Every structure is written in C-alpha cells, then in structure tokens.
Amino acid sequence: MKPSVLVVGGAGYIGSHMVKRLARSGYAVTTLDNLSLGHRDAVLAGAFVHCDLLDKEGLARVFAGHRFDIVMHFAASAFVGESVRDPRKYYSNNVVGALNLLSAMLDAKVRRLIFSSTCATYGIPDEIPITESHRQLPINPYGNTKLVIERVLQDYGAAYGLESVALRYFNAAGCDREGDLDERHEPETHLIPLVLREALRVEGGGDRAQTTLTVFGDDYPTPDGTCVRDYIHVEDLAAAHLLAAERILEERSSLRGFEFFNLGNGAGCSVLEIIAAARTVTGVDFGYHVAGRRPGDPAALVGSAKKAIEVLGYKPEIPRVEDIVATAWRALKRRVPC
Known about the structure:
Structural class: alpha/beta
Number of domains: 2
CATH class of the largest domain: Alpha Beta
Shape: globular
CATH topology of the largest domain: Rossmann fold
Order of helices and strands: EHEEHEHHEHEEHEEEHEEHEEHH
Number of helices: 10
Mean pLDDT: 94
CATH superfamily of the largest domain: NAD(P)-binding Rossmann-like Domain
C-alpha cells in the first residue's frame, strides 16, 4: 500500500496539481486548506479538511485523527509586492503557520516534509544560472519568510530527526494538460495568465489600443531589454515533489536531515518572448504598453536544476515555453469561453 500524504494548501494552484498526481500514483491523499485563496472544487481526490495553519487546536485534531507518512507544505502567501506592503501577514502565515504545522507534526511523530520554497531566497543573483551554492540574501519579506523556514528545517533536522526537502521554484506556469485544473489567482500577478487574459479580451472584440497589459521596464541588460525568467510547468513541479517524496520515504535514502534543490528549466525567457509565444499560440495580435521598472526586479532569474536532475532524477516533461503557454490558454478558454 502506498504511503499516506497530507497536502497542506492542496486547494491552491500548485497544490491541486500535486493532489491529482499523488492520487493517480496510488497515494492516500488528504488536503488541508483554509480556502482563503484555494478552491474546494480544485481538490479532485482524497479527503478534505478545512483548517488554518494558525489554528493550533485544529491542526492537533487533524493529526490525532489521521496517520500521515509525509507532509507536503504549499500553503504560503506568495505575492512579492503584497509582502512589502503587508509583511505582518507574511510572517504570520508563512512563518508562524509553518512553525505550527511543524509542531503538530512532531507531536504526532510525523517526521517527513516536502517544503515549497522559492528562488526568492537568493535575492539579486551574482551569476546565472543560479545554483544551490549561491548565497541566499532575499530582497523582500516573502523571500525572507521562506528562508526563515529553511533555516528552521535545518535546525529541526539536527535536533528532532525531521527529514525535509526544500524545493526552490523559479516561475511556476501552465495548467493541467488533461483540462481538469487551471490557474485561478485573484488578484492575478503571474505574467503568462495576464498576457493570455489580454489575448482573450482582444479575441472577444476588445479594442487592441486599450490594452491593460503592462511590461515593466524595457531597458534591462538583457537581449531585448525586458526581464528574463525561468518558467517551469506546474506538472513538472508536481512530478519533482513526487520524486522528492519517494526518495525521502525510502528507508535507505541518502537524504537525511535537510536537503534543498532548485526546480526550473535552466533556460530563461524574456517578457517579450512570452508575449511573442502567446501571440503564436492564441493567433491574437494583442498589444501592451511599457512602464518603468518595478523596484527590486532582477534583470534575470534563471536556475540550474543540475542537482535535482542528478539526485532526484528530475526531468522536465514540458520545457518549451510555447507548450507551457498552450496549456494555460486551453484552461483559460475552457473557463471563460468567448
């Protein structure tokens, strides 16, 4: 029988794809989510528990009523700009909430965790591509909160025998290829869905000149002057989590204590290249306007996934940006048909 997994934040974008992948692979899945940003209808398998990570008593009841072999933690606030405006929210949810989860786990003698971390822990990169040995110096509260928990996981591993893996994502993108799941953020801040919403607006008869799509900065030291990012399909993220879980669940695993891996494609794509890919995929010649740079935006963030490839056996199935965009476009068209 496959192990039992608690997916914290399993009603959200990445978490819901993870729940589907786990169930399909034969794992017993339970989702825990407070539904502040997640969607109950996105949880396609297993049991569901409505609970907030700030509710210590509720967490204790969850662990008292179930036996979990491993926990996957996706339930973080993750808007960089919002973290600057309201850091209290981020330290409360991302740090206090995670500490509450870890305490409930240890009390229940559950000592395996896969943690959703971020490339934001690196800050402004000194070199591209970024490897795991790059120094971690976040430039915003969101990155700070993730780094705090990475440090906690390291300490808890040494003190309590907690076995954990932190997966540092670059830019999660795309949607479930089978059409069961999509990306629903409100407000939306991710580039690809914003670009595709503009394509959908113009396709539906909207005035191309009245564009709502903004490119922040076209004077960066990159080939076309716009920011370059590393996009990884959400299904590839889920696959990597499963590989990490399988490694940490192995009795003879070489992973002990705290380990960490970058997850990306190892290739960058600029904002204008995303727009060009979206125009090709959609067949819509939508417009955009250019505004000034946003404070704190690095010119390029591209990660090396060599360690994950070699240790976890990670291999992206959907590396081409056009294919990533196409999955997101199909999902958006299903949800908001013209």
